[in-house]
Amino acid sequence: ETHGITFRIQISVKDLLDTNVLLKLLFHLPVNYPSTLPDISVTSDQLTRAQCMDVKDKLLEQAKKHLPEPMVHDLILWVQQHLKYVIKQSATVCSEKPTLSKATSTEDGIWMLLLHLDHMRAKAKYVKTVEKWTSDLRLTGRLMFMGRIILILLQGDRSNIKEYLILQKTSKVDVDSSGKKCKEKMISVLCETKVQSQHKRFQTFEVKEYSTLDELQKEFETAGLTTFFSEFVPPLLK
C-alpha cells in the first residue's frame, strides 16, 4: 500500500542477426501508477551494460508517452518489436563517442537521422507538419514512402535534429482510429550518426514516393548510403 508492487518478466527477443536475446525486465509500479512512471531495470547476459541502459532509457521514453494510462503491456510489446534497432543505434552512437569526447566543437557539423514511422492516418496534415518543422530547423533530406514503409531521413546541425525529435515525439501530428488528434507513438530511431565524407549532402527536403524497393534502394545509393539501406530497410519488410 505504501511502496507499490514490483514484478519481473523474462522475454526472448530477436536481435539484428535474428538471434534470441533473453531480456530480464523488472518493473516497480509506485502507488500512484499509472499517473507516475514505473521504475524499470533491464539486464541480459547477451547484451552489454551500455546496451541494457539504452534499452531502459528507450523504454522510459515510451512510458512517458502513455501517461497517465497503464503502460507495461505496451512497453513489453514495444521492446519486442524494437530491440534490434535500439541495439543497432547503441552501436552507432558508441562508435562516435571517441570523436565526440575530444572537444565540444565536434558536436557541430552535419548529422544524419533515419526514422521509421509505422503509419500516417492523416497523411496530408502529417506531411505538411514535417515539411514545416524541417524548414524551421533548416534540415534537409527525404520523407520516403514505399508501400507500407515510411522513412524520414534528415541532415543538419545535431542540435536541430534533436529539436526535431522532440517535436516529433511530443506534438499531436496524427489522428487515432477514432479521428482524434494524437501524438506519434510508433516511431523508431533507426540510426543517428555524423555525416561522413562518402555521404552526399541533401540540398533540400523532399517528399517522395517509390513504387518499388529498387527505386527506394537507388535513392539511398545515390546519397552514398548503400550500407544504411542494407542494414535498416530489409528488416522492415519482415
Structure summary:
The chain is α+β, with helices and mostly antiparallel strands and 238 residues long.
Structural class: alpha+beta
CATH topology of the largest domain: Alpha-Beta Plaits
The coarse overall form would be: globular
Terminus-to-terminus distance: 44 Å
* Strand-residue proportion: 25-35%
Task: Supply Rg.
Answer: 19 Å
| Secondary-structure arrangement, i.e. CATH architecture of the largest domain | 2-Layer Sandwich
Number of helices: 6
Which class of the largest domain in CATH terms? Alpha Beta
Unreliable stretches: 94-107
Q: Biggest sheet, in brief?
A: 5 strands, mixed
Residues in helix, %? 25-40%
Number of DSSP E strands = 10
How many domains is the backbone divided into? Answer: 2
- H/E series: EEEHHEHEEHEEEEHH
Q: What's the overall average pLDDT, rounded? A: 83
Domain RWD: 1-86
Protein name: RWD domain-containing protein 3
Keywords: Cytoplasm, Nucleus
InterPro entries: RWD_dom, RWDD3, UBQ-conjugating_enzyme/RWD
Short key terms for the protein model shown above:
single chain, alpha+beta, Ubiquitin Conjugating Enzyme, 238 residues, 38% helix, 3-stranded antiparallel sheet, Alpha-Beta Plaits, 5-stranded mixed sheet
Overview of this protein structure:
The protein has helices at 49-66, 72-100, 123-136, 158-170, 213-222, 226-232; strands at 5-14, 20-29, 39-43, 110-117, 140-146, 149-157, 172-175, 181-183, 187-194, 205-210. It is α+β, with helices and mostly antiparallel strands. It folds into 2 domains: 5-91, Ubiquitin Conjugating Enzyme (Roll); 110-236, Alpha-Beta Plaits (2-Layer Sandwich), CATH 3.30.70.100. It has a 5-stranded mixed beta sheet. A 3-stranded antiparallel beta sheet has the order 1-2-3, with helices on one face. α1 (49-66) packs across α2 (72-100). The longest helix has 29 residues, at 72-100. The protein is globular.
